[in-house]
Amino acid sequence: MTRASSAPAVGRDGAREAGVPVIDIDVHEAFTSLQALVPYLDEPWREMIVRGHWTGFTQPFTYWATGGGNRADAKPESGGPEGSDYELMRRQLLDAYDVRAAILTGYFYPVMLGDMQVEFASALASAYNSYQIEEWLSADSRFRGSVHVAPQDPQAAAREIDRVGPHPQIVQVLLGITTRAYGNPFYFPIFEAAQRNGLKVATHHTVYVEGALGMGRYYVERHMLIPQGTMAQIISLVCSGAFDRFPELEFVCLEGGFTWLPHLMWRMDREYKSLRAEIPWVKRLPSEHVRERLRLSTQPVEDLNYDEFMKVIDLIGSEDIVMFATDYPHFDFDSPLRGLPPRLPENLKRKVLYENARRFYGLPDESRPAEDESAGPGEAER
Amino acid sequence: MTRASSAPAVGRDGAREAGVPVIDIDVHEAFTSLQALVPYLDEPWREMIVRGHWTGFTQPFTYWATGGGNRADAKPESGGPEGSDYELMRRQLLDAYDVRAAILTGYFYPVMLGDMQVEFASALASAYNSYQIEEWLSADSRFRGSVHVAPQDPQAAAREIDRVGPHPQIVQVLLGITTRAYGNPFYFPIFEAAQRNGLKVATHHTVYVEGALGMGRYYVERHMLIPQGTMAQIISLVCSGAFDRFPELEFVCLEGGFTWLPHLMWRMDREYKSLRAEIPWVKRLPSEHVRERLRLSTQPVEDLNYDEFMKVIDLIGSEDIVMFATDYPHFDFDSPLRGLPPRLPENLKRKVLYENARRFYGLPDESRPAEDESAGPGEAER
Fold first, then answer.
1. 3-state SS, residue B226
2. Distance from CA of B15 to the nearest CA of A (A)
């Protein structure tokens, strides 16, 4: 792995790095334009892009309250979209903080195509994965990548996972959240493929995520509702037996927050205790499945003070579940230096910023002196 | 008000009443059959029932995991549905515990009719309210009632609120949660009417409530998802300005739980801070609106121990928000004697079981000696 400068890094917020290494588990790389996929597409799909028969995804709202969905300073001088310039990302994120690894999660989720023309969606997923490997993962050894799939065709998704899953920098399958509940056994071929390839399964909302009453009337309302899609996915995965059926699989929910987890575990456990006769394939308390095999990213971190943060971690009942993410280059970027409340215990801070993600993704420990770099027992390396 | 026996009451769980009076804010009365509404319906609606042209609501699932949706022992010997027999309700609930007031919330929510034939839905709401007043509120002075409305026709709903709102035992307007977001200004006539009648606005899910990914595949899954409808209503009310537009209105969300409230307030505040330009009519932090003018019922209480319960209350930042409810006669009835963790501070226990609801609904203090029964300053009585 490439080590960042050994001098303390300085983020854009001007604070000095406190000496804690960072693994950023939600970094959104982007292509300059849809044309970037053309070299990786076969016909007839290539023609759909070249001739402009399909012009890409958009979102059903504007980001006018923030003047766009991204950090204003993340716009490359070259004019491409935010997140499309590796050198700028390196300067603003990878080297600005002591980032030891950055999990790329993209922005181009073929699930958004829907149930029509699923073969095209699968072709786009494959093209994106090839593009990601060629143009991003090869650029920096700190990058780790996600297998993008079109879950509307689970068999094709499984084939794609088998195709790119063995790449040494690929760590997870990414499922975009729209209105599909991924616990449905329809999607189990995806989980089987992830498990046999030793990959994690990550969820991340798309612009089509909804709350219980729809998307809301305003972007700010929608943004308050985002965690509901993540909570509902966890409930779906638990009730349909994905945790029981795929005992080696681990899940991570990105950009859906984490402070609701105590409630969700209590609620699932209460309902499980009274109604589990309906789902006899679920063999353990939902909270046990969750604590062992589900991880959550911090972003967007809520404004918690020290006492509140510590109480939430205590109510979760584990220091190992929450993992830091910046969400670069989005407007609500959380700085690794300021996203967490000040004066957290060093060990907890290290876990959230680095160690939990390092262990979860089976990454080597780059934060220790060279003679100490071998992993501890039982830690899978990839 | 009728006082329960002065001897300590004994609930079906056999525990001795600890001397704390109870206000139960979610009690589901039911009619014996749809025919009960016939005397209160004008033509042509009466005929719809009498001739069987409409046969009532049903639910899109069964309750097989619990053998029905209600306590088995709540089935009246007369054969009517659970919750339809006042004498049984009195024995099992009102007198079994030291219940000083019970807020009736019904089970027959005309919002479930949808957007067709809204005049019929409004007629059913009126008939139900008349039935409720004649057959329930008159039966026991401990009962307080809800104005049921068909919110799909807000003007008709407002007229109905004006019609029955002045009844001295009516305390709130009840909005059933399906997939409608009540913050939409379309519904503001309902809030105007509630405010001018000095009523609270209560929400309660219906069998058509959904989570962010739909209803789920199982009843247990749906039951885990129920809080999302409540959370989404609060987000909708905040963002659309209902708290700002109706400054005297207070809200209570029933049967959606409460342990998610710290998360929801933090999340709303964070998004408000960065995106409030989009909703300039919202003049205060969402958490300030919520703490001052929103209340939540406990039911279904999650299995919290003392430490967890105290942490949640502390994170909510107020002891005044959570109010106890049994949800009688539903299968997941919470006993006032066992629903809360043992050894809570007496003052907090009294607030949750009694005092918060007493103040919220402006009820006289029936728990003090007679010479002390006058309300404190600023407490509205009705």
1. helix
2. 21
Model pTM score: 0.93
Residue B2: the pLDDT is 39
Q: Which of B184, B204, B202 lies closest to B194, judged by CA? A: B202
Backbone angles phi, psi at A166, to 5 degrees: -70, -10
For residue A61, name the pLDDT band (cuts at 50, 70, 90): very high
Nearest to A267 among B257, B264, B270 (CB): B257
pLDDT band at B326 (very low <50, low <70, confident <90, very high): very high
Mean pLDDT of B69-83: 95
CA distance B163 to B197: 10
The DSSP 8-state label assigned to residue A93 in this structure reads: I
CA angle A5, A9, A10 (to 5 degrees): 145
How many A/B residue pairs have CB atoms within 8 Å? 207
User: Is the separation of the CB atoms in B323 and B360 below 8 Å?
Assistant: yes
The tokens for A127 are: 């093209």
Which of A263, A276, A288 is the mutation pick for testing B, counting most B CBs within 10 A? A263
> Residue A369 burial (CB < 10 Å; 0-12/13-18/19+)?
exposed
Kindly report, residue by residue over B97-126, the tens digit of the pLDDT: 999 999 999 999 999 999 999 999 999 999
CA distance B274 to chain A (A): 8
Q: Give tens-digit pLDDT for A287-306.
A: 999 999 999 999 999 999 99
- Among B205, B243, B278, B309, which would you mutate to test the A interface (most chain A Cβ atoms within 10 Å of its Cβ)? B278
User: What is the reported pLDDT for A20?
Assistant: 83
Q: What is the ipTM of this complex?
A: 0.93
Calculate how close chain B gets to A236, using CA atoms only, in Å.
7
Place of tokens 């059933």: B176
